Amino acid sequence: MSVKLHKKNKSGRRFSSVDDFADITKFEPEKNLIVFKKEMAGRMNGKITVRRRGAGVKRFIRIVDFLQDKLDAPAKVIAIEYDPNRGPRIALVEYADKERRYILAPLGLKVGDEALSSEKKIEVKTGNRMPLAFIPTGVMVHSIELAAGRGGKMVRGAGLSAELMAIEGKYAIVRLPSGEMRTVAKDCRASIGQMGNPDRRLIRWGKAGRMRLRGIRPHVRGKAMNPVDHPHGGGEGKHPIGLKAPKNVWGKPAFGIKTRRRNKWSNKFIIQRRGGQKVEGAIKVK
User: Fold this and answer.
1) pTM for this model (two decimals)
2) How far apart are CA 234 and CA 245, in angstroms?
3) 3-state secondary structure 143-199
4) Residue 127 belongs to what domain range?
5) Residues of the chain with pLDDT under 70
6) Which CATH number goes with the domain that contains 183?
7) What is the pLDDT of residue 286?
8) 82 inside domain
9) Looking at residue 1, what is its pLDDT?
10) Residue 253 lies inside a defined structural domain of this protein
11) Are strands 171-175 and 181-185 parallel, antiparallel or unpaired?
């Protein structure tokens, strides 16, 4: 779980780096735990909803068990695998009845270790999963449920972890990687430990060709376009945008403008925004 630098023998490889796969123990996925990923190219019903997406290498979707609903049954880790659809590694686990599943691999989980999921209080060990109510404060967790029984939704990226701050009443207070503090029902489950592959953020992709393999197409600057195509377009040569603030292609304010709805239903669960800003109307935990 480190980054390897390329030799500077080609201009396309100069200053680029790649992920080190030394922690991978199995290179072929389980055939009954994959489905083919259809290329959508950023389109929904034929209309582009996400710009600058398309092509990329063909890949399979690994069916990851975010719910881990096989309770009180130890699962032995038999392999650590690479998942092209996410930053962290995934662990192939096997239960006593020979059923195999994929779970997210936290930092430090190795082949031969056991992971246990339960609705009761169990050992606080990396890879174990239980309700927040039974986890000691100050412990790092990941794959946190937003609603009990819905599966892990938050803190699933490479190297991320959330800190359990307190248990008050029927809520648990967690501090997310962004610095935001929010309440979550204490019967929601979370997995112990930090997500694996923390060095992924250090990768330098080096050239446009590697981005194309990831399905990311070129990005043209707005002020290089015509006025009909972008608010920044037009003018002679290299020029400023000519506006008080930058806008996106649809003429809406960009870069720094908050887009979250003021009356969003989940605002009441947020105690403190990232940056330390308090939120009015948040649930008062007792």
Assistant:
1) 0.88
2) 16
3) CEECCCCCCEEECCCCCCCEEEEEEECCEEEEECCCCCEEEEECCCEEEECCECCHH
4) 3-199
5) 1, 281, 286
6) 2.40.50.140
7) 63
8) yes
9) 61
10) no
11) antiparallel
